[in-house]
Amino acid sequence: MFVACLRLTLAMPENDSLKGKRAVVRRLRDRVRQRFPVAVAEVETHDDRRRITIGVACVSNDAAHGHAVLMSIRDFVEDLALDAELRDVETEVVQAF
Questions:
Q1: CA-CA distance, 55 to 6, in Å (whole number)?
Q2: Centroid of chain to Cα 84
Q3: Residue 15: which pLDDT band, with cuts at 50, 70 and 90?
Q4: Closest Cα to residue 28, out of 66, 54, 7, 57?
Q5: What is the gyration radius of the CA atoms in the chain, in angstroms?
Q6: Is 57 helix (H, G, I), strand (E, B) or coil?
Q7: Between 20 and 30 A from 31 (CA), which of 61, 71, 73, 86?
Q8: To the nearest whole number, what is the mean pLDDT of the chain?
Q9: Which helix (H) or strand (E) holds 73?
Q10: Residue 68 in contact with residue 95, Cβ under 8 Å?
């Protein structure tokens, strides 16, 4: 069993409120969950109104499949019409057992 992890860092330089940031996080989280069978959460920078850090986890029986799912999610997020710009992407696939 493999666990594939993805960390997406997005920037919202024009945003001035946490309310606006949370709306973008909610939209992003909901759209990714609708499209992919993964867990999604805001994992860092909760109080920074101009940065969003999203964590995504996928469990798979094949490391290559887990990595492919993460890359599909990255592409999906890049194509979403959000008020945020994707700045950094980190991935890791680990064997759990």
A1: 6
A2: 12
A3: confident
A4: 54
A5: 13
A6: strand
A7: 61
A8: 91
A9: helix 63-79
A10: no
- As a whole number of angstroms, the distance between CA 23 and CA 57 comes to 21
* Closest C-alpha to 37, from 63, 9, 4, 8: 4
pTM of the model: 0.86
Distance CA 57, CA 80 (A): 19
Phi, psi of 19 (to 5 degrees): -60, -45
Q: Do residues 40 and 56 touch, judged by C-beta distance below 8 A?
A: yes
Specify the pLDDT at position 96: 83
Dihedral (CA of 58, 63, 68, 74) sign:
positive
- Cβ–Cβ under 8 Å, residues 18 and 36: no
State the Cα–Cα distance between residues 46 and 40, nearest whole angstrom: 14
Look at residue 83 and tell me whether its pLDDT is greater than 90: no
Cβ 12 vs Cβ 51: under 8 Å: yes
- Name residue 91's amino acid: T
- Strands (E) located in the chain: 2-11, 39-44, 51-60, 85-95
